[in-house]
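User: Please predict the structure of the protein below. I'd like the answer in structure-token form so I can feed it into my own downstream comparison script.

Assistant: Understood. Taking the following sequence of 369 residues as input:
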Amino acid sequence: MVEGPMTQGAGRGSDVWHGGAGVTASGPVNSGAMGPGAMGPGAMSPGAMGPGPAGAAEPRPEGYTPTRRDLPVIGAAPAVPTPTLVDTPSPASAGGGEQGPLYVVGDVHGYLDELRAALLNQGLIDTEDHWIAGNARLWFLGDFTDRGPDGIGVIDLVMQLSAEAAAAGGYCKALMGNHELLLIGAKRFGDTPVGSGAGTASFQAAWLLNGGQRSDMERLQEHHIQWMSRLDAMALADDHLLVHSDTTAYLEYGDNIADVNDAITEALTHHDADETWDLFRKFTKRFAFRDDAGAMAARELLDTYGGRRVVHGHSPIPYLLGEVGSEDGEDAAPQVHGPHVYADSLAIAMDGGVTMAGKLLVSRLPLPA
């Protein structure tokens, strides 16, 4: 999500990046984005998270395809903290058992303590951060890092809960936000110049301008990168179309959910700076569902990918409502009490603006009438 002065135009327009600094016409980008299937159904061993050669596409054995979630990532196997398994099929899904309640989490942005409190309040974890929700289903909408103090801690918790929820018969899954793309790019490409469409920028500059925390980069390991790079971009759960960004850019990658997820996963395996930058740029777009044509844009996504409502993060609810708070604390904190339903009730915004002293939202779906 972009925190700071923002263009109030339609979400289909892209942010404009200026030379070197990686700044948008509307201010530094701090948005949310995407990527496919680390949470898919195949089981992975810790060694499956090993990296390929830095800066090079991962070698593929014959028959490898990004739609096969049960194949390991090829490469050497680093020591991986446990539990970080995210591909273990849950007993419920494997055996066709009854599914539990569905929850979604908005943008976390490194606010680990606030996330723990919100999950505890919903009865999803205990005071020791362990999953206690049985066969419940939990989706994170992306943007785990940047701006807040402990983005890597957030990622580690989500990975841990993924394993614990699967063992209990539920699941904990996540979508890729644009800040996952930003962090992947900063780690892989650093100051490598990328064509921004309005000059030259770099992932490193954009990451720092958008709240990149050096402590996160110091603690970032290859298994974190592998996990992020395999997250899905979108999913359908109980007639809710889950995405990170309130944009129609998803339509550029396929006309069904599987194709979109596979296209984005495939792009990230190329280890190409410009291709990754293009993904990041497109998924910083926002406000597609906010203005007069918003309901039409939401309906276009729903007609293409299914579902009755789009559920997204990325654009903070205070921005959607025109109640932008100051990040220096001089203004009163924005009043966010829960998800924001808009666009003729076709869209639900879940980013409560935790980075601007708003609220980190964890909500059960469907929302009460």
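That's the full token string. Residues 151-168 form the longest helix (18 residues).
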